Amino acid sequence: MLSVVVPVYNVAPYLAECLASIAAQTYHDLDVVLVDDGSTDDSARIAAEFVRRDARFRLVGQANAGLGAARNTGVRAARGDLLQFVDSDDVLPPDAAEVLAAAVARTGSDFATGNTLRLDSRGLRPSRMHARIFTHTRLRTHVTRDPELLGDRTAWNKVFRREFWDRHRFAFPEGVLYEDTPVMVPAHVLARSVDVVHVPVYHWRRREGGDRSITQRREETRNFVDRFTGVDGVSRFLGEGGWTDLRHWYDASVVRSDLAFYLRVLPEAPDDYVQLFLDRCNEFLDRVPQRVLDGLPVATRLQWHLVRQRRVPELLEVIRASRDGGVPVVRRGLWRYRELPYLDAGLPYLPRRLYRVGPSRLHRAFIAINRKIKFRDSYR
Fold first, then answer.
1. Which residues does the UniProt record annotate as the domain Glycosyltransferase 2-like (predicted)?
2. Buried b (16+ CB within 10 A) or exposed e, 65-97
3. Residue 2 and which of 83, 150, 281, 317 are 20 to 30 A apart at CA?
């Protein structure tokens, strides 16, 4: 039996579609645990209607305690030997549960994880967060062989063996935002093997208009603090466990994406938010090898350099200039550079090499000629 845990809180516009997609799964042996987390809209009534119509659905109520607590409540109530999480504003493709459950049944892996599509009023399209990870199916793999799986940090595109979940006493952090990463990355590391399925198994809704999701509220201080606490805790977990290579890979991805996600809103943020951002991120960057920062794209590399220098006015100007993309490339001598603010200012704390995108065509030709000369001379 597969237990599907669905936390429910004030999602009346989306809930019926979500629950209907679960009821329509081609995998029929379901135990669907709906956890009403103190909803104040029509969500509880909609959930109760599904319970009345379908004996596989059960409803558990509790005072509002947040997504992590609701998921943990659902796990305690779950009866299946397999475990799946679905957020109540999202949608499952009809064969999602069957595809994932069949994978772990075939291989004996501790969990299976699958591709994701973004859902909005325009329809479905690939999730950029997942597309690079789920290019092809890999059965019985592991994050030590597939380090890009460290980027697979969402709980809802997976089916877990309940025995694996209980053995490691996994539980979502409560009272915080971004509950997934502190559990999903350790799950990847601690699993004996994982099945990666390239077909989409989840439709992740992008809320539109004024009804914004957690990931759309990055200008809120609590949003940043909770995201930082989660990724920092995982980095420390990897370090304390001796997974040094994984930690470096993970830290690099945090700098490229998780924390860079908040860089973009700094020009509109209040001063206390900016200072908090600088303090926390510099604590994290103190543990990140310089080569990780050197390998970032030019605009991101320049921004993090200014974070390290705590040069706020310059940082905000570079962020504004970088936002729209399409920053032109210019040539200075034999090298090419991104034409971002202060490129030619000659500031000692902003060396021009930070702007460099690679050698010019002339320089590449010069390098090629030099290599040919050295190759020819070595045979004389």
1. 3-164
2. bbbbbbbbbbbeebebebbbbbbbbbbbbebbb
3. 150
Answer whether 68's CB lies under 8 Å from 179's CB.
yes
CA angle 290, 291, 296 (to 5 degrees): 100
Q: Where are the alpha helices (DSSP H) in 30-95?
A: 43-53, 67-77
CA-nearest of 280, 242, 289 to 258 is 280
Q: What is the DSSP secondary structure assignment for residue 50, as one 8-state letter? A: H
Reported residue count of the chain is 380
Provide the mean pLDDT of the chain. 92
Q: Note the helical H segments in 139-285.
A: 162-167, 181-190, 221-240, 244-253, 260-263, 271-285
Q: Are 92 and 19 in contact (CB under 8 A)?
A: no
**Dist CA 1 CA 82 (whole Å):** 6
* Greater model confidence, 333 or 274: 274
Mean pLDDT, to the nearest integer, of 121-146? 95
Beta bridge partners of 5: 33, 85
Crossing angle of helices 298-309 and 312-322, rounded to 10°:
160
Q: What one-letter code names the amino acid at 210?
A: G
Contact between 58 and 33 under an 8 Å Cβ cutoff? The reply is yes
* DSSP helix/strand/coil, 95: coil
CA dist 41 and 64 (Å) reads: 13
CA distance 163 to 82: 8
Q: What share of the chain is helix, strand, coil (3-state, %, to 5)?
A: 45, 20, 35
Starting at the edge strand that comes first in sequence, how are the strands of the sheet with 329-332 ordered? 329-332, 335-338, 356-359
CA distance readout (Å), 47 to 43, 70, 278: 6, 15, 44
Kind of pairing between the strands at 111-120 and 158-161: antiparallel
- What is the tens place of the pLDDT at every residue in 63-110? 999 999 999 999 999 999 999 999 999 999 999 999 999 999 999 999
**pTM, two decimal places:** 0.85
Q: What is the rounded CA–CA span in Å between residue 45 and residue 39?
A: 10
